[in-house]
């Protein structure tokens, strides 16, 4: 079985370098996919409050841990959830966190809570961050971060007068057709690691001739080439599948590397193409038009 390497976060914790995504994984399948994902070697599981499958993912983790308590420990697994836009604000986020922490009771704590996107306003984003900082102080959440934050949203957050914990992660849509070089470099320059969502382009680019050619060269599938590109860029990719037969192949990417030239060739496909939403461009309060 593949053993996934880890990298350091600015919180002093470590995170696996690849994770399993759970967007659109139905709640009644989430426990089994989480359990089989852990059996296949995944150690990072990425849920969110809006995915409506947090409990399933946690049940799958708890089942896997309980099966072999001598060899499997809570610290072997990294569980992420996210606070959605409609739950921004101090009291709203407190309530959301309490609910997610309650769901996670079986596994003791949540490794990472992300602000799902910056789509609210300064006061609400700030209140959310204060509530997240308190959750870290309580020990129920180990690290906190952001998702879909643009450079301006990160700068705003880093300037909070009562900032105690910097974000450990910025989770962004990233693949060769969307490389976001400036945002990635700025995040990294602030000690913020990058998670790549939609790393498989929702399956839309798997027939790309360069992916097919590189797949033949390395005896890998185009999906595995995309995941390897993400790893070679220093991202933490989060491929999603509900098919157990795809779990192991999507993780079987640690026995080869793309060359620098091959990474650059794939980088050149960048055309700012998004398969998901793009809150990184969401206006700050002072950018909002009166009549908008
Ligand atoms: N923070 C945010 O705003 C966002 C976060 N995310 C996170 O990132 C994760 C991944 O992104 P996501 O948008 O789901 O998209 P992905 O790029 O991971 O694509 C998932 C799609 O690819 C298919 N697929 C998986 N493996 C293969 C394979 N080997 N060959 C062919 N097709 C394959 C899946 O189908 P099937 O399931 O049928 O196998 C599914 O339809 C999410 O699940 C979520 O955890 C995603 C979007 C936004
Ligand atoms: O995974 C996700 N897919 C999405 C699509 C639209 C809005 C949020 C999300 C996710 O978090």
UniProtKB/TrEMBL annotation:
NADP-dependent oxidoreductase domain location: 18-270
Protein name as annotated: 2-dehydropantolactone reductase
Name of a matching Pfam family: Aldo_ket_red
Phylogenetic lineage: Eukaryota, Fungi, Dikarya, Ascomycota, Saccharomycotina
Record's keyword annotation contains Oxidoreductase: yes
Keywords recorded for this protein, A-Z: Oxidoreductase
Lowers pKa of active site Tyr (site feature) positions: 82
Catalytic activity: isatin + NADPH + H(+) = 3-hydroxyindolin-2-one + NADP(+); (R)-pantolactone + NADP(+) = 2-dehydropantolactone + NADPH + H(+)
Listed transmembrane segments: none
EC number from the UniProt entry: 1.1.1.358
Signal peptide: none
One annotated GO molecular function: 2-dehydropantolactone reductase (A-specific) activity
Residue numbers binding substrate: 116
GO biological process terms held by the UniProt record: ketone metabolic process
Source organism per UniProt: Dekkera bruxellensis
PANTHER family in alphabetical order: 2,5-DIKETO-D-GLUCONIC ACID REDUCTASE, ALDO_KETO REDUCTASE FAMILY PROTEIN
Active site (UniProt): 51 (proton donor)
Top-level lineage group: Eukaryota
